[in-house]
Specification:
name from scop, globular, 46% helix, alpha+beta
């Protein structure tokens, strides 16, 4: 069994500003955060280095600028998994299908 601490950090994003830390914990609390997220159907990204970094932030603190691109890519991937795409993509698809 590993002696490594298990960390979990939950982020929230409302579409404005930057994502914020809404929950964080280690060991049993991390397990509870993960279990609640799974029950709610929330996508979980497992990255120990990112979790370690995010765990240094305070609750309700926004992520630092250095993480904007990484978190934006993760959010984009989650949105695509959920079938949500930017309006411009639908218009682009329409332009391609009508010009062929």
């Amino acid at each position: 069994m590993s002696n490594e601490k298990r960390l979990a950090v939950a982020l929230s994003y409302d579409g404005n500003g930057a994502p914020t830390v809404t929950a964080k914990g280690e060991d049993w609390l991390a397990e509870d955060i993960i279990a609640l997220a799974e029950q709610a159907g929330i996508v979980i990204h497992r990255d120990p280095a990112l979790a370690q970094y995010l765990s240094t932030l305070d609750l309700n603190e926004t992520i630092p600028r250095e993480l904007y691109l990484l978190i934006a890519e993760l959010l984009s991937f989650v949105y695509m998994l959920d079938g949500r795409y930017p309006e411009e993509w639908a218009q682009l698809h329409h332009k391609i299908s009508t010009s062929a």
